[in-house]
Design brief:
Helix content is 43%, strand content 21%. The chain contains six helices and seven strands. Helix 4 packs across helix 6.
Length: 183
């Protein structure tokens, strides 16, 4: 799969499933100038190490913009026909919004508008967090529910949605043609 001129792609999956690697490959294959929008705030040494590994993994040639909350503004400002933007990731972005007690619905609406208006491709990475057990505390349940709503909203707005599981991409949208099964 390749990304086209003004396409929005949502890449989702579980932790360490290969989402970021897949999304980075999509951006590289576009042959457009790559822009990486990092939403992570490294609060400890382990997160700083993860950020450093991601930078090494991407290699040279990527413009990196660290923005924990105003990603709609970054997309609006940085989007161009000769650039491909990778937002990694919406899950950390949502966490940042929740910790800031921001209006998540308004921020999501702004993000959807920025994605629709983008002049170049935008690939967003997110996590599927609702497939496990019900979290034991109210904050974790609130986050899981908000993440599910965010993922649905961005998937509806995206041209393409890809689920990555065990390093294998499965295109969910547009829906693959299903063979007719007769019993």
């Amino acid at each position: 799969m390749t990304v086209s001129a003004a396409q929005c792609v949502l890449v989702t999956g579980g932790a360490r499933s290969g989402k970021s690697l897949y999304a980075e490959a999509l951006i590289r294959e576009s042959r457009l100038a790559p822009v990486y929008v990092a939403t992570c705030t490294p609060y400890d040494a382990e997160m700083e190490e993860r950020v450093a590994r991601h930078r090494l993994q991407r290699g040279d040639g990527w413009a990196t913009i660290e923005e924990q909350r105003a990603i709609a503004d970054v997309i609006a400002r940085e989007s161009a026909a000769d650039r491909a933007i990778l937002v990694d990731c919406l899950t950390l972005w949502l966490s940042n919004l929740m910790f800031a007690d921001a209006d998540i619905e308004a921020e999501t609406t702004a993000l959807v508008a920025a994605l629709a208006a983008a002049s170049g491709p935008v690939v967003c990475v997110t996590n599927e967090v609702g497939s496990g057990i019900v979290p034991e505390n109210a904050l974790a349940r609130r986050f899981r529910d908000a993440q599910g709503r965010l993922n649905r909203t961005i998937a509806d707005a995206a041209d393409t949605v890809v689920l990555v599981a065990a390093g294998q991409p499965l295109v969910l949208k547009p829906a693959p043609v299903q063979p007719e099964i007769r019993l």
